[in-house]
Amino acid sequence: MYACGLRISEAATLEVTAIDGVNGLVRVVGKGNKERCVPLPQPVLDELRRLWKTHRNPRWLCPKRNGGPACRETLWSTFQAAAREAGITKRLTPHALRHGYATRLLENGVDTRVVQILLGHARIATTAIYTHLTEPTRTSLKGILDKLMTGL
């Protein structure tokens, strides 16, 4: 969810065919069935390939044991468990990963309009809430994402 700025519902229903490993992209179906493509950092693609080998589900990237897509509640509880394991005591939701993604991109100089497209926001004002938290510099988007996702 963090690597691509996904909403929890988008992550839960992500299909294997949505991953374009050759071009380093993920096709995301978001709110209102709107589709967008977001960059997939190489370290995350490598990890997703390892994950898929553990279940080999032909359709879902994160399947339930019965073969269907993961439910939001499962991802929510997994996120909460990971936060506890990391020693985080502040109450967080999985949506914090999406906020972190947007903030880190803006801090690293990615244009607000590009972040809007990556997040699938209909209005630039929704994306602009992140700009007061950042001190942007200019660098390449792919390099930023690869660096951020290395070692996750």
- Order of strands side by side in the largest beta sheet? 1-2-3
Proportion in helices? 40-55%
Number of DSSP helical runs: 7
Work out the radius of gyration: 15 Å
| Gross geometry | globular
Tell me what portion of residues adopts beta-strand conformation. Answer: 5-15%
The total count of strands amounts to: 3
Describe this structure in words.
This protein is mainly α and 152 residues long. 45% of the residues lie in helices and 8% in strands. The chain is built from 7 helices and 3 strands; from the N terminus they run αβββαααααα. Strands 1-2-3 form a 3-stranded antiparallel β-sheet. Strand 2 and strand 3 form a beta hairpin. The relative contact order is 0.17.
Strands, helices and their partners?
Blueprint: H1 8-12, E1 19-20, E2 25-29, E3 35-39, H2 42-55, H3 72-85, H4 95-107, H5 112-119, H6 124-128, H7 141-149
Antiparallel strand pairs: 1-2, 2-3
